[in-house]
Amino acid sequence: MRLFLTFRNSRIRPIGMVLYLLIILFLTPGSGWGKRTHDLFFQGTDYELHVYRIYGEEPGKTLLLIGGIQGNEPGGFLSADLYADMALAKGKLIVVPRANFYSILLNRRQINEDMNRQFAETSEINYEAKIVAILKELISESDCLLNLHDGSGFFSEKWESAMRNPNRFGQSIISDSETYTIPETGKTLHLGDMARHVAEQINRYIEEPGHRFHFNNHRTRNTDTLHPEQRKSATYYALFQCGIPAFGIETSKSLPLETKVRHHNFAINAFMELLGIVPETPGVYLDPPVMRYIAIAVNDKIPFAVPNGYTLQISSGDMVRISHVEANYKRGLSADILDYGTVNDMHKPIRITRPTQVVVRKDRHPCGMINIVLDAAQSQLRTVTAVPEASFFKTRINGDERLFMNNAHVDLIKGDRFELIDVTTNLEDPSEVIVNFKGYVGNLQNNTGEDRGYVIHTGRDLWKRYSLYGEGKQYQIVVLHGETVLGRLFVRLTDPVFEYVILQVNRGIKRCLFPGDSLAISPEEPIQILDIKTNIPKNAGVRAFLKGSDTNVPLFSDGEAFPWGSGSRDIGPENRPYRIVVQREHIILGSIFLDLEKGRSYGG
């Protein structure tokens, strides 16, 4: 519908003005329902907070999504991020993709205090408290809250193993009560019914039974609750202070990242359907992040567009300010001027007195860099030039060759063998290039910094104090030509994890056992390990042994199983207790305990 207004003169009578304003209010595109807004809090700090409000074409319920309240849980914040650009036909979304951006940048659960334990009264004045005050306001605007997390293990109402029991959170929908009656209105919220309905919808898409979702009632107000600390959480505040249904969505940290994101999406979509919010379902977009250029101003002049891998030449004492990062992602970007400022130097005026680099990250993953060098002649001429750079890193991981682009990141399991074979550069004469794995020394007698050709045992050869942030989890490989950095490759280490073992007893029943489980069998029954599930590709280096006080029998090695008869001479009362120990070289990953009872049979 089009509306034409004609005025004979410039004066509009009061009644006409009211009518005109009402028409503008209800018919102007971008106003009221059908619009979207973006609010930015604490700009220029390490803890910038972005809040997105998406209004449907028709009014309806409001759902609040909070991701990244604990920074080492990427499934939640990457899922929430997919909804920030969504268009709605009906209802409203409030999306906070990265509630705790500072902790995301450092890949930590918390910085000062756990942000999800700040919703009770607190006297602490820190950035977490400031953000929680805003989140409380957003909760008061909403009809339902979803707090998106990645939790440990797998939740089960009964104890099944160390990784699957009532104290684990993964693959569950958590609420603080089965039902709650709001005192002011008498309305009863049926949280358990809502959660079970959503879990049923999610599980339609999950084939693996062990990965399906369950309702997890924390009974937080009860004196015998297993989780009294949750009385300080966002969901507890939302339910008992604001009277809205609130849930923690917990995917398991044991699952691959893309699986976690998809499961969060399933949960969000099911809650939206339950609330009558009509969405445009987003897809999963997890391409590797790549920075294209940054916009950087010198002394508040017109900004330069400096492409990835280029050099900006300035004079000593010049003030620089980064105003924009262009990449294949819009959100979660930060720029770190090394040895200056903090972990995120976007929008900050910083005076440069020595050469440095700007490292751009998507969340915590480096995705680009530029060099800043000083003009010794102090000519006041600012220039942007291309620099020599490394294009590719040729590596070998556990014997398999892999190629990585400049500024990529490599995920390794502690104990992997890693070798730097070579790098590709655009130099005419690459003979003076040094490839240095920071935190590793190949030759202690003559440490030149050159680390190509060495097979690095990541479980024992790396020096923790030279890792990024000193945590022994992330390392960098730097390509140097003189003092010029040509490129970097980032290595991220995770601990090896033993998830479960498949055993066959007496060639009969196959049993799935988790770390810490026990198995009772007769001494005469043979057992065979059919498979061991770990996070280690191809189970490289994974072995299993039957161990007693004087027994050490191999059962499994690098994917090959060795049948063993428990009636052999290795068994005797003097050797008890017995364990099946799973390890990767010297690193013990977990144990299964054997109870050998005379005459008791599980073989079938």
Describe the structure.
With 604 residues, the chain is mostly beta strands. The protein contains seven helices and 39 strands. The strands form nine sheets. It has an eight-stranded mixed sheet with strand order 1-2-4-3-5-12-8-11, with helices on both faces. A hairpin with a 2-residue loop joins strand 35 (551-557) and strand 36 (560-561). The termini are far apart. Mean pLDDT is 85; it is low at 1-31 and 598-604.
Q: Which key phrases capture this entry?
A:
about 600 residues, mainly beta, Aminopeptidase, 4 domains, 8-stranded mixed beta sheet, 6-stranded mixed beta sheet, 7 helices, disordered C terminus
Question: How is the topology of this model organized?
Answer:
Blueprint: H1 14-27, E1 36-41, E2 49-55, E3 58-67, H2 74-81, E4 90-96, H3 101-105, H4 127-140, E5 144-151, E6 154-155, E7 164-165, E8 172-175, E9 180-181, E10 188-189, H5 191-203, E11 214-217, H6 234-240, E12 246-252, H7 257-275, E13 291-298, E14 304-307, E15 310-314, E16 319-327, E17 333-337, E18 350-351, E19 356-362, E20 365-374, E21 383-386, E22 390-397, E23 400-405, E24 409-413, E25 417-425, E26 433-437, E27 455-457, E28 474-481, E29 484-494, E30 498-505, E31 510-513, E32 518-521, E33 526-534, E34 542-548, E35 551-557, E36 560-561, E37 564-565, E38 578-584, E39 587-596
Parallel strand pairs: 3-4, 3-5, 5-12, 6-7, 8-11, 15-20, 24-29, 32-39
Antiparallel strand pairs: 1-2, 2-4, 8-12, 9-10, 13-14, 13-16, 15-21, 16-18, 17-19, 19-20, 22-23, 22-25, 25-27, 26-28, 28-29, 30-31, 30-33, 33-37, 34-35, 34-38, 35-36, 38-39
